[in-house]
Design brief:
Elements lengths: L1 E5 L4 H12 L3 E6 L14 E5 L5 H12 L6 E4 L14 H11 L1 H17 L2 E6 L12 H21 L4 E8 L2 E2 L1 H4 L9 E2 H13 L4 E4 L1 H12 L2 H9 L17
Parallel strand pairs: 1-2, 1-4, 2-3, 4-5, 5-6, 6-9, 7-8
Helix pairs in contact: 1-7, 2-4, 3-5
The protein binds NADP nicotinamide-adenine-dinucleotide phosphate (NAP).
């Protein structure tokens, strides 16, 4: 089995890679900074690529090299970044950067895999979105928008590509303990160890689940927030925002 994972240098991507490697798969991972990969993460069947997923040609070249004359079974578009300091006022430059990585990075990754899978008439493409993609969280607009777009992209592709033999999965995790969330100062309900999250994601991929939202407590909460009247949602979420002109970070989350 050949599996390519973007954003495999740390966090969720690294742990999913570990699981596939233990199972005997050939795994390709990529990231912008390969020195982040732990020293002891060495496998014969592992290939690493220095790639910025927002660069279309870089990810296409890496996937082509990884596939070689073989076939690609699964690609996981996992690479992503969060809003970081979560300012009350939008930072448009950062917004474009987040969209470039979290949305266009996923599109580039899917394109890189699609050309192989359409020839093979089979394959599985997956993306790691977020529960943040179901709502507009204050001070995390870019992150929510990027993850929301990934969810609908995957839903559409899941329907459209079924007849080509290509399965599509969108993963929407809650809070997972990784470098991305370790900088959060606020409380993170139902924070899950990354090893446990990776196993849940792999099991969902094995089942070819179209949309996997976890943990279950976060799934209930986000479904409730997503379905409630929008004026009520805006009222509740707006309670903490007092002065939109102050450039002070607010305690909200990207997850
Ligand atoms: N942790 C959570 O609570 C949580 C919740 C919901 C969704 N997610 C999503 O899960 C995914 C993985 O996040 P994580 O929590 O595992 O965070 P992480 O530990 O910070 O990992 C992010 C990975 O993405 C890579 N990456 C970032 N920008 C990239 C780019 N332009 N090109 C290539 N690789 C890039 C990073 O590698 P380099 O720095 O080497 O490039 C790293 O390997 C993200 O899409 C994130 O939004 C996380």
């Amino acid at each position: 089995m050949k599996v390519f994972i973007t954003g495999g240098t740390t966090g969720i991507g690294l742990e999913i890679a570990r699981l596939y490697l233990k199972e005997g798969a050939e795994v390709g991972i990529c990231g912008r900074d390969l020195t982040k990969i732990p020293e002891d993460f060495r496998y014969e069947r592992l290939k690493t690529y220095q790639v910025d997923v927002s660069n279309r040609q870089q990810i296409i070249d890496a996937v082509d090299e990884f596939v070689g004359n073989g076939e690609l079974d699964l690609i996981i578009a996992n690479a992503g970044v969060s809003d970081g300091d979560k300012l009350r006022l939008p930072n448009f430059e950062k917004t474009r950067k987040i969209m470039d990585i979290n949305l266009y990075g996923v599109i580039n990754t899917f394109e890189a895999a699609f050309k192989h899978m359409i020839k093979q008439k089979r394959g599985h493409i997956a993306a790691v979105s977020s529960v943040a993609g179901f709502v507009g969280l204050p001070a995390a607009g870019a992150y929510c928008a990027s993850k929301s777009a990934v969810l609908t992209l995957c839903e559409s592709y899941a329907i459209g590509l079924k007849k080509c033999g290509i399965d599509v999965t969108a993963i929407a995790p809650g809070f997972i303990d990784t470098p991305l969330t370790q900088k959060n100062k606020h409380t993170m309900p139902w924070l899950m160890p990354v090893e446990k999250a990776a196993l849940k994601i792999k099991n969902a991929l094995d089942r070819k689940t179209v949309l996997f939202i976890f943990p279950w407590q976060m799934k209930i909460l986000i479904t409730f927030l997503n379905k409630m009247p929008r004026c009520l949602y805006r009222f509740l979420m707006g309670l903490k925002i007092t002065d939109y002109t102050k450039k002070k970070p607010i305690e909200n989350s990207s997850l």
